[in-house]
Specification:
The protein is an alpha+beta fold. The chain has a domain of 100 residues: Orthogonal Bundle (Arc Repressor Mutant, subunit A). A hairpin with a 2-residue loop joins strand 4 and strand 5. Helix 3 crosses helix 5. It is elongated. The protein starts with a helix and ends with a helix.
Length: 145
């Protein structure tokens, strides 16, 4: 067996590493995971899709509703959903005959945390805040992409 066979057999690696954080249990991200997540978001339709799922909150959205909201054909939507799922930014759950997609808030927070990890040389220039479905104040202030 050559190296390509063993690489193909490995399952996809999640960019989010569950671990400990000085402030308690948290999702942590490494550089490889951050590149995967940012790469998945570096496309206009996927970015809009992820933002839509973040706005939808913990209830998520059915694939048909996502396609309608974004005006994206189902075949393209499937591709974009798969890219975001492989990057660990969204989850999928079957509910009866529908597939429900949700933003993975711990993964999103881990990405933002990784990007801001050494912000301002560690001087604490930004308040620590985790994002989640309950953080509606900011979403009311900023509606555009």
């Amino acid at each position: 067996m050559d190296s390509t066979d063993s690489e193909a057999a490995d399952p996809p690696r999640s960019p989010v590493v569950r671990g400990s954080h000085p402030l308690g249990p948290a999702a942590l991200m490494d550089g490889v995971g951050a590149v995967a997540a940012l790469g998945a978001l570096a496309q206009e339709h996927r970015l809009a899709l992820f933002r839509l799922l973040v706005q939808a909150g913990p209830d998520g959205m059915a694939a048909g509703a996502i396609a309608e909201a974004l005006g994206v054909p189902n075949s393209s939507l499937s591709f974009h959903l798969a890219q975001l799922s492989r990057a660990g930014l969204i989850s999928q759950e079957r509910q009866h005959r529908s597939l429900i997609y949700r933003a993975d808030y711990p993964a999103m927070n881990a990405l933002v945390g990784y990007l801001l990890e050494n912000c301002c040389g560690g001087a604490g220039c930004m308040p620590e805040a985790a994002c989640g479905p309950a953080d509606a104040a900011l979403s009311r202030q900023r509606k555009s992409a």
